[in-house]
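Example record for the data management plan.
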Amino acid sequence: MSKMIFVNLPVADIGAATRVYEAIGCKQNPDFSDHQSSSMVWSETITFQLLTRDYFATFVSKPVADAQAGAQGLLALTLASRAEVDAT
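Corresponding structural encoding:
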């Protein structure tokens, strides 16, 4: 079994967040998406699970970070070239 990474992120608007991730090249996996979450596949090994803030809160015991007030993570993705980065 290959190793995979699932990055779970709280979002304010599932539809808007899904469109952003589609714009950078992710494909939505409808099997793991609904009105509370959107499973966005970046590659065979990396998936972003976008979750409404309320749904995200059911998985953690601490308050969900306010993205407007502070940092909640730093992610880096690899691409083949600077041109590919610019195109994305």
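Summary line stored alongside the record: The two ends are 30 Å apart (CA to CA).
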